[in-house]
Amino acid sequence: MSPDTSFANCLEDLRQLLVEERDCIRELNMDRLTELQERKKDLLPIIEKQEGVSADQQEMARNIRFENRRNAYLLKFSLNWIRNLMEMFGRSKQPASYGRNGNQVTLQMGGGLLSGKV
Fold first, then answer.
1. What is the rounded CA–CA span in Å between residue 85 and residue 91?
2. Under 8 Å between Cβ of 28 and 61
3. 27, 9, 11, 95: which is closest to 60 by C-alpha?
């Protein structure tokens, strides 16, 4: 197998990994996502060493960059979604109370969902 063919195969493998990675992100399958990221780490040094690539391979590399950014945005969105859920679960169900000095007083730490008092 020529180096050019092997490079094209690595690019195609990386593209497939990114598609699988997106599915894992959507399904929140963190174990499989970790495996895919390890495989990506193995492919990247091979791809980085390549010089003098053809126009088709450059186009494929641009598509891979786009797919990788898509996955990064999806991961960022998922993380923000999880943070918002945790914030919602931690919110207090009681209205704010004020002490005799006009300070806001916390009567109960944590939210009703986390404390079991719904």
1. 10
2. no
3. 11
Alpha helices for the chain (secondary structure H):
3-27, 30-49, 55-90, 112-115
Selection from 78, 69, 13, 7 nearest residue 41 by Cα: 13
Give the whole-angstrom CA distance, residue 65 versus residue 18: 10
Q: What is the pLDDT of residues 43-96, one digit of tens each?
A: 888 888 888 888 888 899 899 999 999 999 999 998 898 898 888 877 656 667
Structure-model confidence comparison of residues 33 and 112, the more confident one: 33
Residue with tokens 């990675």: 21
Q: Count the alpha carbons within 13 Å of 2 in the hemisphere toward its beta carbon.
A: 3
Instruction: Judge if pTM exceeds 0.85.
Output: no
CA distance 69 to 50: 22
